[in-house]
Amino acid sequence: MSRPARIVQPGPPAAERIVAVPARGRSFSARLPAGERLLDAAHAAFAREGFAGGVIEIGEMALGPFAYVMPALSKTPDHAAFYSDMRRPAGVTRLSAGAMTLGRRDGAPFFHCHALWREADGALSGGHILPEETRLAEAAEVACFGLDGAMFQADPDPETNFKLFGPVPAPPLGARADREAWVLRLRPNQDFAGALEQFCVARGLGRVRVRGGVGSTIGASFDDAGTVENFATEVFVRGGAVLAGAASLDVGLVDFAGARACGRLRRGDNPVLMTFELALEVMPEA
Q1: Cα 175 from chain centroid?
Q2: How many domains does the chain have?
Q3: How many whole angstroms separate alpha carbon 208 and alpha carbon 47?
Q4: Which domain holds residue 85?
Q5: Looking at the chain, which terminus has fewer C-beta neighbours within 10 angstroms, N or C?
Q6: DSSP three-state, residue 195
Q7: Is residue 173 part of a domain?
């Protein structure tokens, strides 16, 4: 199957292709205790710092019980792609890397998290972690970026026919936020790096760091790791920046066949499939 250049979504495309809300942000580290639901532990860590939500960059983490879904082909025309059945591997699953968007859905805390991991039987996998079903098997240290003045909220999206996280203004909570930030959602069929470059140039942002980053691309084309041809993916940003109008994005992903890949995305050749949500931390000029 050759990688398509674009995917037709079931609904009409929205006119606004980059949804952006200004905010203030701050980096902090948090220790998530063993035994708690991952969702509850993450939300409590942000609340202690005065934030309603933000993003988390995940390193090693042990989870169990653990549940997830993978990307899958859609069986109906209601969606351009869909999810696999829920999977619950036995024992402790050990994440190697991932990213989480922490916000609200249906009035309650929720997260959107993609990661790569090794299951207890040694199988390597990855995908979309289910908030309600997953607990921390061991305490974990995570790198966080809290947001004040904006948050991620899951709302129905007519274009994709999913309920998706996007940025919305939020009353400032008085958290000690010390950085200018932007909270973004990129809509389908625009190049990931190109959209970020366009956004930063239009606003005169010379140096930004990509914080978090959870979404999907139409397969993937890497500078350093070949090409993923299968179009349905679950992607997360391992590290990224936009410097002087040029984006550098290092990601991990799994496709609908279960193949994993990591590397630096090739600029101009990685259109968004369903969505990509992230925060931009505006850095001081060098």
Answers
A1: 23
A2: 1
A3: 25
A4: 24-145
A5: C
A6: helix
A7: no
